[in-house]
Design goal:
heterodimer; A: 95 residues; mainly alpha; two-stranded antiparallel ribbon; 2 strands; B: 493 residues; alpha+beta; Amidase signature (AS) enzymes; eight-stranded mixed β-sheet
């Protein structure tokens, strides 16, 4: 599998990571190399093999849907780079 | 530095109980040792004041007769565990200034049992790496590096990702350290630095408050200088936690009691697929030596087959990046850490993440994003999850004819910083022996077994059945005794 520059730019956009134009070629090479490496999995017969969902072989526990904890607004916000009036601040989203 | 920093945890517990020294004295010696080893860059944050305060509290508890299983033992914490009010970086630029408002369950358990925190130790960024060369806070140098301290003739890697943990413990600056292991990040650095490291069964240690890399693989575990110390520390770290949905609700055994030395009649699986092509002669030799030691102790080696071993790395390098790309979506410049402004919200995200993630992390997020994207999900991600099932089945089958599996931990001794860096695949091959047990969620431990021709440590790995850490520890203890590994790094505090 070989990725081209445009595909890498598209993935970078999907991942919301700004990648400088001049690094795209090199990155395309590296990612292609990794994808070529993983292609060997095609050799494995996986007919009727269930995809692993949990390695621990246990069902997820259920609990009552009730509030048992909370009320930490100040703590939650304390690491925010920019906050005001009990909220995170981001650039204007709605025109 | 005096003998206090060369004690094992078991010896230190004895000395504290006999009042030969106090927790404050033991901690002061280690605080000084942490300063001495600064050239290794093992610590990101030193917390001497907190350490002394915790040591005082420990002495006060002891005076009242309240003695926890790790009472007064100074340890280092991998900087992937959230520690309340103490900088937690995951060795990434993107978590600049992050001081958690909460404490991870594993560290909470350790403090509950009396341990003392010396500081937060370096790692590969977000635990992604096998050499501790991807940290935003700089490379960690192995105390095994030859030459003059700070002016080494060859700067060796301590392994990774728990490289700071390994370096601190090997250099006698901490009695033990927490590590985390996703594909070998406890076991490989333990092997490279001549110490013991155990990754317990997936679900044994709570992941709550541990910065996530690949959630279906991440497990915490102890890194110590002896198997007995690993047993002591593992017991304190484990335990059911309702805050982690994959935490397993079962009793934690007294692992130390498992170290009986008696392995007579035990069947030790030797997987033929691990004799990989091009395996260095000294790795094959130490493995054969390990088999001989176990035979001499009355165990029976059994030839086993794990046919999908060769596909483990490729599986891992789909599953782990896929989960990482999802987990690391949370670093958005809004809620914590670094923020690089942009004209709009999308630019803020892209600028922050572009500036905040290092190259290896970026590479893995992009691979993960690609294999999860529309049109490729089945071909890559689902295929990898199916192969993962087959790898797990291999182990299930093998454990029908053996009780524990013995392999080398890593395919080489430690290499130098700068080597293997151009080719990501070459670097990934470091984990060839450790990744399969991770994919199958099994307990795995590395025990120092000897020195290579270059004078550097070699480790042997034991892999056990799910939740059978006791057998792993018991057999590891036998290997430790037989190997009588007493070599210390050229640079110790």
């Amino acid at each position: 599998m070989s990725l081209d520059k445009a595909t890498v730019a598209k993935i970078a956009h999907l991942a919301r990571i700004k990648v400088p134009e001049e690094e795209l070629d090199h990155l395309a090479g590296e990612l292609s190399q990794i994808l070529t490496f993983v292609e060997q999995l095609g050799e494995v017969d996986t007919n009727n093999v269930p995809p692993m969902t949990s390695v621990a072989a246990q069902k997820l526990r259920r609990r009552k849907d009730e509030v048992t904890d909370g009320g930490y607004r100040e703590s939650v916000l304390s690491n925010g780079p920019e906050t005001a009036e009990g909220f995170y601040v981001v650039p204007k989203v709605v025109e | 530095m005096g003998a206090l920093t060369h004690l094992t945890m078991a010896e230190a517990l004895d000395g504290l109980a006999k009042k030969e020294y106090t927790a404050v004295e033991l901690t002061e010696a280690h605080v000084k040792a942490v300063e001495t080893i600064r050239p290794l860059n093992a610590f990101i944050t030193e917390t001497p004041d907190k350490a002394l305060e915790m040591a005082k509290a420990s002495d006060a508890r002891r005076a009242k007769g309240e003695v926890g299983p790790m009472e007064g033992l100074p340890i280092a914490v991998k900087d992937l565990f959230c520690t309340r009010g103490v900088l937690t970086t995951a060795a990434s630029h993107i978590l600049d200034g992050f001081k958690p408002e909460y404490e991870s369950t594993v560290t909470t358990n350790l403090w509950r049992d009396g341990a003392v925190m010396l500081g937060k130790v370096n790692l590969d960024e977000f635990a992604m790496g096998s050499a501790n060369i991807t940290s935003y806070h700089g490379n960690v140098v192995s105390p095994w590096s030859p030459g003059e301290v700070g002016n080494w003739s060859r700067q060796l890697v301590p392994g990774g990702s728990s490289g700071g943990s390994a370096a601190a413990v090997a250099a006698r600056a901490a009695l033990g350290a927490t590590g985390t292991d996703t594909g070998g990040s406890i076991r490989q650095p333990a092997a490279f630095t001549g110490i013991v490291g155990i990754k317990p069964t997936y679900g044994r240690c709570s992941r709550w408050g541990v910065v996530a890399f690949a959630s279906s693989l991440d497990q915490a575990g102890p890194m110590t200088r002896t198997v007995e110390d690993a047993a002591i520390m593992l017991r304190s770290m484990c335990g059911f936690d309702p805050k982690d949905s994959t935490s397993v609700d079962m009793p934690v055994p007294d692992f130390r009691a498992a170290l009986t030395g008696d392995i007579r009649g035990l069947k030790v699986g030797i997987p033929r697929e691990y004799r990989v092509e091009g395996m260095p002669a000294e790795i094959a030799k130490i493995w054969d030596q390990g088999i001989e030691w176990l035979k001499a102790a009355g165990a029976e080696p059994v030839d086993i087959s794990l046919p999908h071993t060769k596909y483990a790395l490729a599986t891992y390098y789909i599953v782990a990046p896929a989960e990482a790309s999802s987990n690391l979506a949370r670093y958005d410049g809004v809620r914590y850490g670094l923020r690089v402004e942009g004209g709009n919200l999308k630019d803020l995200y892209e600028n922050t993440r572009g500036a905040g993630f290092g190259k290896e992390v970026r590479r893995r997020i992009l691979i993960g994003t690609y294999v999860l994207s529309a049109g490729y999900y089945d071909a890559y991600y689902n295929k990898a999850r199916q192969v993962r099932t087959r790898i797990k089945w291999d182990f299930d089958e093998a454990f029908k004819s053996c009780d524990v599996i013995l392999t080398p931990t890593a395919p080489s001794t430690a290499f130098a910083i700068g080597e293997k860096m151009d080719d990501p695949i070459q670097m990934y091959l470091n984990d060839v022996f450790t990744v399969p047990a991770s994919l199958a969620g099994l307990p795995g431990m590395s025990v120092p077994a000897g020195l290579g021709s270059d004078g550097l440590p070699l480790g042997l790995q034991l892999i056990g059945r799910p939740f059978d850490e006791e057998t792993v520890l018991r057999v590891g203890h036998v290997i430790e005794k037989a190997a009588d590994f007493t070599a210390t790094p050229p640079f110790v505090a």
